[in-house]
Amino acid sequence: MTHTAHTSTPINPVLAARWSPRAFDANATLSQGDLTAAFEAARWAPSANNWQPSRFIVGFRGDATYNTILESLAGWNGVWAPNASALVVAIVQTEVEPGTVNPYAQFDLGQAVSQFTIQAQTDGLYVHQMAGTDTEALQKAFNLPAGYAVFHTLAVGKIADPSVLPEELAAREVAPRVRHELKEIVRHGAFDES
Ligand SMILES: Cc1cc2nc3c(=O)[nH]c(=O)nc-3n(C[C@H](O)[C@H](O)[C@H](O)COP(=O)(O)O)c2cc1C
User: Fold this and answer.
1) What residue owns the CA closest to ligand 1's atom 27?
2) CATH of the domain at 121
3) pLDDT value for 194
4) Which of 11, 14, 69, 86 could serve as a FRET partner for 78 with CA atoms 20 to 30 Å apart?
5) Model-level pTM greater than 0.85?
6) What is the pLDDT of residues 17-75, one digit of tens each?
7) What mean pLDDT comes out for the span 93-100?
8) What domain range is 25 assigned to?
9) Which atom of ligand 1 is nearest to the CA of 3?
């Protein structure tokens, strides 16, 4: 199934094809090498002062890291995500040095995750980000040092038919994707001007 974006003008086809499925193929397996390009893409994301605050922990279905991440997932995430081939913890180095906060750290992690996602999509994989994660549990489980924080998690894998999902999630899987109109997000002057 595809959910290609309806754009007002053609965009990069990989960006148009990207979306966040919940129906992942439980038989698809990935190993470290399959995600090297995606992590390289994340590594080469821009960051303020080139501080590079993004860090990742990756587990593959069946290994201990994967199971630890899986246990941290909240609500529906814990229902659909077990079919993902890999689970990734997205971590941010919040301080440039002890006591000095990097105000751009989360923004830069977002850019790195975006590049990860687009490279994975280019390589035939899908990524679904999950804020519904017990970040404190992961922080403890993976012994994060001071100045680092878990932000969220990512499910990565091959897409499957929506029928692998419980009914409620299957209905959400096939629902149209919606966005604000372009004119709502791009202005040519002050907000009180039309
Ligand atoms: C920071 C962030 C957190 C998210 N958390 C969750 C989540 O916990 N569970 C979930 O099912 N989807 C989650 N999503 C996915 C969004 O709901 C999804 O990206 C949005 O609805 C747009 O859909 P699309 O990615 O298919 O275009 C998250 C996305 C982002 C960027």
Assistant:
1) 19
2) 3.40.109.10
3) 63
4) 14
5) yes
6) 999 999 999 999 999 999 999 999 999 999 999 999 999 999 999 999 999 999 999 99
7) 95
8) 13-170
9) 26
